[in-house]
Structure formats: C-alpha cells, structure tokens
Amino acid sequence: MLEMRPDCERCGTDLPADAGGAFICSFECTFCAACADALDETCPNCGGELLDRPTRTGDRLRRHPASTERRHRG
C-alpha cells in the first residue's frame, strides 16, 4: 500500500491524499507537479521516473490514512 506522503520533498507544498497533483517514483519519493516538471520527471534521489500518484478518497482514506510524516527538509 502506498504511504501517501503529505508534502513535496523539494518545496514542501502540501499534497493531500485525496487530491491530484502529486508525482511519485517506485520508492514513493513524492513531489508536486511543478517540481516534477522542473526535475524533468526524474527522481533526484534514485533516478527513477516520476509518475502521477493515484488518489485515495472516502472510506478507503478513513480506513488507511495518509502518512503525516513530512519529508521536506528545506
């Protein structure tokens, strides 16, 4: 199950699990759309491809909440 990280690792923008606009690599590194574009859709941590992260909504989000651990170190 995806960790659904709450923020962009590069700029700190909030990325709610129930909204689009987040991009992840296969290691779940997470970036906002603007940062993913600036990174040419390539993860700076592992070199992997950044792809649209699916959303999690409704009952599934309540039963399996998103992570609250922020990753931005800015």
Automatic annotation (TrEMBL):
InterPro entries: DUF1272 (IPR010696). It comes from the Bacteria. It holds the Pfam family DUF1272. Residues 61-74 have a biased composition (Basic residues). Residues 50-74 are annotated as: Disordered. Residues 50-60 have a biased composition (Basic and acidic residues). This is DUF1272 domain-containing protein. The lineage of its organism: Bacteria, Pseudomonadati, Pseudomonadota, Alphaproteobacteria, Sphingomonadales.
